[in-house]
Structures are given as structure tokens and as C-alpha cells.
Predict the 3D structure of the following.
Amino acid sequence: MGRISEQKSYFTPDFGFESQLWDKGIRFVAGVDEAGRGALAGPVSAGVLVLPPDPEIQSHLKGMQDSKKHSRIKREEFAGRIRDLALAYGVGFASAGEIDRLGILPATRLAIQNALSQLVIEPDHLLVDFISLPACNIPQISIVKGDERSLSIAGASILAKVARDDLMRKLDQLYPEYGLAGHKGYGTQAHRAVLTRLGPSPVHRLSFKFRPVDS
């Protein structure tokens, strides 16, 4: 297990890391990424994606970046394309209560384990965006800015983000006064203003601190 550090300020995700492993006969390489770590409400989600060991697949994912760089429509379009191309994929969650109980990093690792448990293929190797998974016995590489450098990680980030956003829209129907469908639980000024006025809902992370908004 190792970590590959950032070497330049801008990247375009490709199959560079994957191809190095494929060339060694490592067939099932999974990209791993999370969404929602910094939010004040809702779960953290994790995506795991195994794409075919074929560099030509890159042409079907032209223009795909990490999830934060796409609009909702573009993310959902790529998510559908990813699911069609994938050998296997999974999305896992860790709830706000689990985040409060475990801490955000262990909860993120739990969400990743939940996503891994959904795969119909066991990966031979993991490419993980930044964090390490010490309890996971699958060989892995932690890559700084991995979602900007690896197509498998970028795809995993899109799956995690699309699934989490969908869940936040459902939670918005339960707690409409908080505007969860709009800010997805992140600490926008409007969200913080509602928290200052109403206090947290059952899906807020009580262990997270937020800056109140003056009335």
C-alpha cells in the first residue's frame, strides 16, 4: 500500500494508473471515492467502480471529470454510461449517526466497505482517492487528487455523488424546512441560518460544528 502524491496543479483523468496495473496482469482494478465528507447533514457516501481492463473504454468516457466539476445533468448522464460499461460497481453509505459515533474518517471507510460488499467481482487492486484503508486486505494505492487523475476514481466519485444527492432529495421531503435538496447538507449560509433558527434535524451530524448566522 502506498500513496502517490500530486505532481502538478491540473490533471485530466485517464487510465494511466489502471494501465500500469493491467500491464502487470492485474485485471480487476477498482476506483474508490467518497462524497459528502464535509457536509453538516446526511450520510457520507462511497462509490467503488471496476471498469473493463481495456484502454479503449476511455473513448466512451471522454470529458468525464471528478463529480464536483459537472452539473447535475452531466453527472447523471455519465453515471448511466458508467453503469453500462462497468464490470461491477457499488455505492455504500454511513449515516449521520455513524459519523457522530465513529468520526468522519472511520465512517468514510465504513461507507467504502459497504460499497465493496455490493460488488459481484472482488477487485484485485484498489485505487483510492487520497485516504487509505488499513482494514482492507485488498492491495491499494492512495492517490492525491485521485478523482482528477484516474478515470476509475472519477467514475466512482460520480456514482457516490449521484446516489447521495438522490438520497438528500428524499430526505428533503421528510425535513423540507432545511432545504436539503438544494444544498445537499453542506454548510451554505442559508443552511446555517435555518440551523441557527431551528436547530438540527435527526439527519444532521451533531458532532460537526457550524458557524451560526447572525439574525
Notes: The longest strand covers residues 29-35. The chain has one domain: 8-172. The chain has a mean pLDDT of 94.
